[in-house]
Amino acid sequence: MSPTPFSSSPSVALNTGLQMPLLGLGTYKLCGLQDVYRAVDAALSAGYRAFDSAAVYRNEAELGKALRELLPKYGLTREDVFITSKLGPKDQGEKAMEGALHSLSQLDLDYIDLYLIHWPGTQGLPVADERNPGNRAQSWASLEELHCQGRLRNIGVSNYTPAHMRALMQSCKVPPAILQVEFHPRLCQPELMSLCKEYGVCFQAYSSLGKGELLSDPVILDVAKNCKRTPAQVLLRWALQQGVPVLPKSSNPERIQRNAEVFDFTLSDTDMDRLSALDSGQRFCWDPSEVA
Q: If you average pLDDT over residues 109-130, what whole number do you get?
């Protein structure tokens, strides 16, 4: 079977009018060209058309090289894939323009489909430091400038709290297209989801599997058994049925393939409710709530 072209893979319309695939490959902890190449090859073969990187992952150059070499193998071009990267916390503020241009250079691209402020704080500053809001605003102004130049097709934020989002929406010239946050049945983030809906911002999930911890949860295992799916597929489907794009990460080609098999089944309302009832506010990743 030939791979699905981006134009016909399940996608969501962003507030810029551009489309973003609902399923992307997260590349956190993918290190070295060999590992990145193998994962990207498996993902393209499985129909993935979106790839999520970041300056702090230190794999932008490897991702860019892997895509350049592998896209022709699948009859694809640059325009067939959606590439995300993120501004490192060390470049927050006056270094944001330089940081974003460095990402473009590392990826060796004329444009990045989506570029995010990775974290609301600034590396080297205490979380409660009152310089953080000003640095965020300065970063956003740089991203807006590059967006207007067409170098960053969509711009957005990651790990923002409701307070950070409200402040940004009050001051921005270009609204964020995306908010990317930790999201899974134990961290449902209803206030953030509601805010994003109100603002017309796409709410995107990372860490859908809770760093693997959720794969052994008894409720998730029971739902997976009943619908003859893997726990990972159930967790990804739970998000997708709420209209939330997902970014499962794996270096294992077989798991990459299985994680893509999430568009040919539906969870019942009962199963959706059972999973959502697991919400306890538990985080497996960083907590941005103390960042000023």
A: 97
Angle between helices 96-107 and 60-70 (to 10 degrees): 30
Q: Is the pTM of this model over 0.85?
A: yes
> Annotated catalytic residue: which of 28, 37, 48, 57?
57
Strand pairing report for 19-21 and 11-13: antiparallel
The CATH classification number of 20-276 equals: 3.20.20.100
Angle, in degrees to the nearest 10, between helices 60-70 and 33-46:
50
Residue 118 is assigned to a ligand binding site? yes
> Are 182 and 207 spatial neighbours (Cβ–Cβ below 8 Å)?
yes
Q: What token pair was written down for 45? A: 């073969």
The closest alpha carbon to 175, from 194, 195, 189, belongs to 195
Is 206 marked active-site?
Answer: no
Q: Tell me the pLDDT band of 1, cut-offs 50, 70 and 90.
A: very low
Report helix, strand or coil for 38.
helix
Q: Tell me which amino acid residue 176 is.
A: P
Per the CB < 8 A criterion, the answer to whether 117 and 157 are in contact is yes
142-188 pLDDT tens trace: 999 999 999 999 999 999 999 999 999 999 999 999 999 999 999 99
Residues 110, 103, 150, 69: is their CA dihedral positive or negative? positive
Tokens 């994680």 correspond to what residue?
259
The 202-206 sheet, strands edge to edge: 25-26, 50-52, 82-87, 112-117, 152-158, 178-182, 202-206
What is the mean pLDDT of the segment spanning 4-21? 82
Tokens of 52: 């999520």
pLDDT of res. 7: 47
Q: Please give the structure tokens belonging to residue 78.
A: 């640059």
